[in-house]
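thread from #wetlab-drylab

HS: before we spend reagent money on co-crystallization trials with flavin-adenine dinucleotide, can we at least see a predicted complex? here's what I'd submit
DV: go for it
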Amino acid sequence: MPAQQEHFIDCTGDGDVAAKAGADFTIGDGKGIVQPVSLFFRIGDVNTSELRAWMKKNRQLLKDNPTDKEIDSQKGIAFLGLNELVKEEIAKGNLDSEIANRILMYELPHHQFAMNVTRLQKISGVNAKELTKAEIRLRKQVVEVYRFMKKHVGGFENSYIVETGARVGVRESRHIIGDYILDEGDILEGKSFEDGISCGTYAIDIHPGQGKMQIYTGSGKMVYEIPYRSLIPTKFDNMLVAGRCISANQMAAGSIRVMATCMAMGQGAGTAAAMAAESDGLTRNVDTKMLREMLILQGQYLLNSDLEETIDPTLILDREKSDGSKGSHYNPFNK
Ligand SMILES: Cc1cc2nc3c(=O)[nH]c(=O)nc-3n(C[C@H](O)[C@H](O)[C@H](O)COP(=O)(O)OP(=O)(O)OC[C@H]3O[C@@H](n4cnc5c(N)ncnc54)[C@H](O)[C@@H]3O)c2cc1C
């Protein structure tokens, strides 16, 4: 008999539902220091041939001093650098002192670039007044950065601001306390869990909440699992959280927060909630072996498990595990 209990999956990013219902949480590093907020924006009509030529002439201003070949072989230009110029323009008062200490931008289709440069520290993503303050200041930063690009970088002469994010982007706010708190050890060891419901592979990437030092660690080979228990707030058996607010310390949250990882958690949470609703309604009683089986059959990428023996072996591909040994994963695209 399906249970009558109501279920909630909190995917608000900030853990709003869980917090309002009384779940325990920490903010940022546990002392309230959170990653800075930023307002993404796009610049259009950039002349990419001129930009590439400019990059070749000014390679020493870019990270890792790229060669002509490296610049030409980039299908879409990923641009990181200009630290000294940024510093000078901050000193002259032409750029906000809180702005990131480098220009980071990525090429998009139609000669547009996504700009990841604006920044403001010590803003609570769950405080409307602070968010409003950030919104106003970051919009000013957008114009400053755009002027900076036109002044210093080739290819931007006839460009224009296409759009900004609809609202200020919050990298970090609440971390809901769940039955398991994911930490950096789990990430760096590429840990798998008996109740793993999804994987992450991104580095630990923590933009500085104070000062200028960004933490960026971990190799691209790292793959780890997120346990179902990190989605269950400790005080509740009818609520799951998914996304950047799951139960993780700040270091681990610095990795799990990226979009693909958050989406995969949502798949895990939704499937678990459906299973709970079909049984006694209690999220904590979900059979995690069956949950993993369901997820694998849906095409969810999970780390090596004995469950794979029960599914079609032609759907299993070899892959290298984080420790260098060979493992396997289920490839839904092989169907
Ligand atoms: C500036 C910036 C740059 C980033 N760059 C990258 C990047 O390059 N690559 C990458 O993968 N990740 C990047 N991230 C991280 C990533 O975008 C987020 O961490 C991720 O989107 C979080 O996913 P989520 O599902 O937890 O929350 P969100 O994507 O924020 O989704 C939460 C949704 O819930 C809605 N919501 C919130 N509160 C309520 C409420 N009370 N009622 C109803 N609806 C509500 C929101 O409107 C939103 O649609 C960046 C983040 C920022 C801020």
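DV: The radius of gyration is 22 Å.
HS: ok that's useful, forwarding to the group
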